[in-house]
Every structure is written in structure tokens, then in C-alpha cells.
Amino acid sequence: MRDPRPTPPEGQQVSNETTYGYFGPRGTFTQAALAAHLESVGAADRLDASVPFATVTAVLDAVQAGEIDLGVVPIENSVEGGVSATLDALNARDELYIRAEVLVPITFVLAARPGTTLESVRAVGSHSHAWAQVRGWMEANLPAAHYVPTLSTAAAAEDLSGLDDLTYQAAVCARMAADTFGLEVLASDIGDNASAVTRFVVVSGPGHLPAATGADKTTIMLFQHDDHAGGLLEMLEQFAARGINMTRLESRPTGAAMGSYGFSIDFEGHLDDARVAETLMSLHRVAARVRFFGSYPRADARPAEVVPSASDESFADARDWLEQLRTQG
Ligand SMILES: O=C(O)C(=O)Cc1ccccc1
């Protein structure tokens, strides 16, 4: 009989022993991202055995310690920008690599215990990124409501259903979380931006570089030698000179001193592409440190547009030409 499961991209084969963890509890947007990822690699049946962790750092610690093979965490939001908790936690741990990315459209509901009216809601619990995306709706519909931060959107829903002495009466979460924890939906589609998308990453330990697909992304963090005029430009021109398009650039404080920053960058291409390899080698020369977080297939499978002068063939031709000069010149 034919195996009905889709064939996963090379380098992303999942065995029945592969263990997954995610930023939970059940009902988070991160769990939805894990479900979408498992579907795409033909391993939807692994969802039930996946382990929820209460924080992003707990997921990454479990991957680092080898308790789970792969962990899923949010990294970037189309409305709020980078998830700094994830960027900083990845950076603080050696030997963690991004193996895949997942894009999830985000829609929020306001959920409460059955019988609660909108008028009786005086405070709302949720994850800070969710709260930031429903501010407009809150100002228009619950202008006096206070915000209570919770570890995740689903944690707000779970606590609402199970604990009695809470300081909030409603949660901003996914409809799935409201259903999971027996809450009633007071209002749906309350996000200020109907096309909000969050990007999640699947993280593992070393030694599992996915094969190049032609539609890949690479994530790195760059650290400057010292603060000098043109320092950032010097690093960025390495990308421009080799026709590489960046898809995210953020500065993050290193924590070492006021004004000390690292640059977190996603760009198109794979470590096995000549233009990427050459760029990384040049960055290694001009930067104090280059942290490589992995090359992995793009979630939207959009192939990189590579100008002819930045193709693998063009780099190989240039190398052959140089070799010829060395032997005959
Ligand atoms: O709290 C959650 O459900 C998460 O997975 C983090 C999050 C919060 C808000 C938008 C997207 C992801």
C-alpha cells in the first residue's frame, strides 16, 4: 500500500521516536504552529505526544539538555516585530539551531467563564504580544479594562477556567484555547490587524543542517569589534556585494554595557549557496563574532531571486579563472 503521508523535505524526516516540545500549554498559537509543521512533514500523529513548556526558555533548555529533539517557539510577529525573549534566549545558548520556520495567521478571541458579560470584565489576561495586537479593540470596547500579563495566551485561558482568585475576568487567546478550557467566546476577531501573522521556528541541537532547496533562509547574529563610524555599513555591504536580500534586521543589546549591540539578521539563501558561504567568510573577517543559527527551507517556499553574477556557477567560474591565473600568470 502507498504511504498516504506527504514526503517531507530532505533533512526533515521524522521518525516515530522524534520528540517535540512547544511553548504551551495546549491551545497556544505555538501549538497551532507545531501542528502545522507536523502536518507539513507528514507526522501529524506526533502532536499528542508533544510536550508543552510554560516558557520559551524552558523549551530551549529542554532542547539543549537533549530532553526533546525539536522545540517550537515564536520568533517574529508581523505587527509587533521580533520576539525578543526568543532572540535573546537563542543567543544565550550555544549549540541551538533553527531547522524550519512556520507562518501562522493569528486571530484572537475574548474568552471568559460561561455566563460572564462583556460589561462585567474589569481586567483582561494575556501574553504581552497578544495584548499589543488588540489595543484598538480594547480602547473601543473595554476602555476601562486593566491588563494582566500572563505567560501565554492559553495560560490566561487555562487559569481562568481552573483558578478562583484571579484578578482578571477574561482572556485574549486563540479560539482553540477557549474551546480547550471550556470558556465562552465574548467577542471574536478582535485583532487590530486582520492580516497579522506570527513566524515560529523549529529548533534542534547541532548536526542536522537541512539540505538546500533553492528557497531557503539563513539566520545569524553579528557582533561588532568596536563602535566606529560605518561599522554596521561595513558588515551590511558584504550582503549587498553578493546579491543577498535580507528579510529581517534587528539590533539587540548584548547586556555588556550601555550602547553595546548585536545585530540579528535573517537573509535569503543557504549555507551551501556560494554567495552565502562567501558572505559568511567575509563577515567572519570584518565582525568580532558571527553566530550561525542555521539554514532552513522558507515556509512560503518562495525561491530566492539570484542575479546571474551571484549564482553558484558565477562564483565557480571566478574561482577557476583565479586558479588559471595562478598556474599560467
Ligand atoms: O501565547 C501564545 O499563544 C503564543 O504562542 C505566543 C504568541 C502570542 C501572541 C501572538 C502569537 C504568539
Structure, described:
It is a single chain. It is elongated, with a radius of gyration of 23 Å. It folds into three domains: 15-106 and 196-208, 3-Layer(aba) Sandwich (D-Maltodextrin-Binding Protein, domain 2); 109-188, D-Maltodextrin-Binding Protein, domain 2, CATH 3.40.190.10; 211-329, ACT domain (Alpha-Beta Plaits, 2-Layer Sandwich), CATH 3.30.70. It contains ten helices and 15 strands. A hairpin with a 3-residue loop joins β3 (70-77) and β4 (81-82). Helix content is 30%, strand content 27%. The longest helix has 17 residues, at 312-328. The strands form three sheets. Strands 1, 2, 3, 4, 5 and 11 form a six-stranded mixed β-sheet that branches. Strands 8-7-9-6-10 form a five-stranded mixed β-sheet. With 329 residues, the chain is an alpha/beta fold. α8 (231-241) packs antiparallel against α9. 3-phenylpyruvic acid (PPY) binds next to α1, α4 and α6.
